[in-house]
Amino acid sequence: MVRPYDANTIADFVIQDSSSRGTPVSNLKLQKILYFLQAKYLTEFNKKLFHNEIQKWKYGPVVPDVYFRFDHYGASNIEEVPKEIDFSEFF
To answer: Where would I find the Antitoxin SocA-like Panacea domain in this sequence (predicted)?
Structure first.
């Protein structure tokens, strides 16, 4: 059985794909895209695309794990996926 992805992996793909098409996304738009991708996957395959929780917020559905990773962009488009550093190798 294939396990669901992490929502950050899906978000990274959406950001990279959107940017490469010349239509970068904001955090708000990214959240809505993640919601619709999850819904589409559930209806087509009867299983989750990603395991992260989706919450109901004032302006729509939000995956907090992804939202807080990109909240420093505010309402601006997310131009690139930040590189994540694994600090465990330093300890």
So the answer is: 30-83
Supply the pTM of this predicted model.
Answer: 0.85
Cα–Cα separations (whole angstroms), residue 38 to 2, 24, 63, 77: 15, 20, 11, 22
pLDDT, one tens digit per residue, over 19-77 is 889 999 999 999 999 999 999 999 999 999 999 999 999 989 999 999 999 999 999 99
Q: Which two tokens stand for residue 20?
A: 């490469």
Q: Is the dihedral of CA 35, 15, 20, 18 positive or negative?
A: positive
* Domain boundaries, given as residue ranges, for the chain: 7-75
**Would you say 49 and 59 are in contact if contact means Cβ atoms under 8 Å apart?**
no
